[in-house]
TrEMBL record:
It is an enzyme of class 3 (hydrolase). This is 3'-5' exonuclease. Keywords: Exonuclease, Hydrolase, Nuclease. CDD domains: DNA_polB_like1_exo. Its EC number is 3.1.-.-. Residues 62-225 form the Predicted 3'-5' exonuclease PolB-like domain. InterPro entries: 3'-5'_exonuclease_PolB-like (IPR019288), RNaseH-like_sf (IPR012337), RNaseH_sf (IPR036397). SUPFAM superfamilies: Ribonuclease H-like. It comes from the Bacteria. It comes from Maribacter confluentis. Pfam families: DNA_pol_B_exo2. One of its GO terms (molecular function) is exonuclease activity.
Length: 239
């Protein structure tokens, strides 16, 4: 049960991804062919691989991470705070910075990672991109040989399923039905590629990513039947 885990032992996270190249024509011929094959089952017959490339950020083999936002609880007596920070910049560097955070501060058995749909997207995506960059996986992402109950991952969407494997619920919908105030987001996931490549506004994407981390933490609190965070409990920490 989620209430068996101490809040300060959970690292909440969210990632934002985009296609690795800004346009399909920047790919080499082999990658173009592999992309056409990879995407053929998702594309409609009338949609070409080039037209579908705007969605390439969904796949770790054809996309890249542009930011990883994390949040964690701190307690001093009865005072509760939630601190949020973001790793961004060149993918190799932000992955190394994130790995260092895990290795230095979230490397004990008691520590777990939490994301919405994290088991299907965020956790494997980060691990795959680390491998692609030749970065040794931190213990929290290296699942080889682990039994299911040994995997240190929480997923708010999975917790909401209650055993229903067919059920998908967006973070926004969960927040709404659980009475969590909607954050003032000015973009959604479908806009990240355009904001990154065409508007060159990473700061705007970081704000969106951090709001999702906060919302994930709020949803997790509601799943534990605990009071959600107030505005003055949330602290932004500059890197």
């Amino acid at each position: 049960m989620p209430d068996k885990i101490h809040l300060e032992n959970i690292l909440f996270l969210d990632i934002e991804t985009v296609p690795e190249k800004s346009s399909f024509d920047q790919l080499d011929d082999i990658t173009k062919e592999l992309w056409a094959h990879k995407s053929q089952y998702q594309r409609k017959d009338e949609t070409t691989p080039e037209e579908f490339y705007e969605r390439a950020g969904i796949w770790a083999e054809f996309g890249k991470i542009i930011c990883i936002s994390v949040g964690y609880f701190t307690f001093q007596g009865d005072t509760r705070n939630f601190r949020i920070t973001t790793f961004h910049g060149e993918e190799n560097k932000l992955l190394l910075d994130f790995k260092n955070l895990l290795d230095e501060h979230f490397n004990h058995t008691k520590h777990v990672l939490c994301a919405h749909n994290g088991k299907e997207f965020d956790f494997p995506y980060i691990a795959r991109r680390m491998i692609i960059h030749g970065i040794a996986l931190p213990e929290k992402l290296d699942l080889f040989g682990k039994k299911p109950w040994e995997i240190p991952h929480l997923d708010t969407m999975e917790l909401w399923k209650f055993g229903d494997y067919k059920h998908y619920t967006s973070l926004k919908l969960m927040a709404h039905v659980l009475g969590i105030p909607s954050p003032k987001e000015d973009i959604d996931g479908s806009m990240v590629r355009v904001v990154y490549y065409q508007q060159n506004d990473l700061k705007r994407i970081i704000t969106y990513c951090e709001l999702d981390v906060l919302t994930t933490a709020q949803v997790y609190l509601r799943l534990r039947n605990q009071a959600i965070l107030k505005d003055d409990e949330v602290k932004k920490v500059a890197k």
